[in-house]
Specification:
This protein is an all-alpha fold and about 170 residues long. It has 6 helices and no strands. The chain has 2 domains: about 80 residues; about 45 residues, Orthogonal Bundle (Arc Repressor Mutant, subunit A). The protein is about 75% helix and about 0% strand. About 10% of the residues have low confidence.
C-alpha cells in the first residue's frame, strides 16, 4: 500500500474537519470565530457522533425495501420483463444500498477516530457503546458495572473533553 505524504495527511484531516460540520457560516466580523457555548459545543459533538447510527438506520431502511422488492420479484417469477419498473426500482435501490454501506463505513471510521481522541479507556467505552452500538444508558451502566447516573456524568465529562480537544466545528 502506498504511504501518504504530509500534504495528503493535512488534506485528509481537513476533509475530516469538514465532516465534523465545519461548514458553519461566520456570523461576526471577518477573522473572528463564532462564540459557541459549552452546551452548544457538546450538542455539536453529539450530533457528529450520532451520524453513524443514523447512517446505519438509513441503510437498514433501504435493505428492507430491497428485500421487499426481491420477494415480490421471486413471487412474480419470470413474468416481469427485464425493463419493468419494479426491476428497475430494485436495481436502483440496490445501488443506493451499496453506496449507503460505503458511507456508513466512512462515517464509522470518522466517529471511531473521534472516540479514540479521548485518552481514557472507560470514557472511550462509554462513547463506543452509546454511539456505535446504540445502547441505552441503563445497558451501558450494566455493561460497565456502573450506576446509570454516573455513566451519564462521565458521558458529559467526555463530551466536554472532546469539545476542548477537537477543532471548532
Amino acid at each position: 500500500m502506498e504511504r501518504i505524504n504530509d500534504q495528503q495527511k493535512r488534506a485528509l484531516h481537513g476533509a475530516e474537519l469538514a465532516a465534523l460540520g465545519r461548514a458553519q457560516e461566520k456570523a461576526c466580523a471577518p477573522g473572528k470565530a463564532l462564540e459557541v457555548s459549552a452546551g452548544a459545543r457538546r450538542e455539536q459533538i453529539q450530533q457528529f457522533l450520532r451520524r453513524y447510527r443514523q447512517a446505519v438506520a438509513q441503510a437498514e431502511d433501504l435493505a428492507g425495501e430491497v428485500q421487499t422488492l426481491r420477494a415480490l420479484e421471486e413471487r412474480m417469477g419470470n413474468t416481469l420483463p427485464p425493463q419493468s419498473p419494479a426491476i428497475l426500482r430494485l436495481e436502483e435501490l440496490t445501488a443506493r444500498l451499496e453506496a449507503q454501506m460505503v458511507r456508513c463505513l466512512d462515517i464509522r471510521a470518522q466517529v471511531e477516530r473521534a472516540i479514540q481522541a479521548v485518552g481514557d479507556e472507560q470514557q472511550q467505552r462509554i462513547l463506543w457503546l452509546r454511539y456505535i452500538r446504540g445502547l441505552t444508558w441503563e445497558k451501558i451502566g450494566h455493561a460497565l458495572t456502573l450506576d446509570e447516573r454516573w455513566v451519564r456524568r462521565l458521558h458529559t465529562k467526555t463530551l466536554d473533553r472532546l469539545a476542548r480537544s477537537l477543532p471548532p466545528l
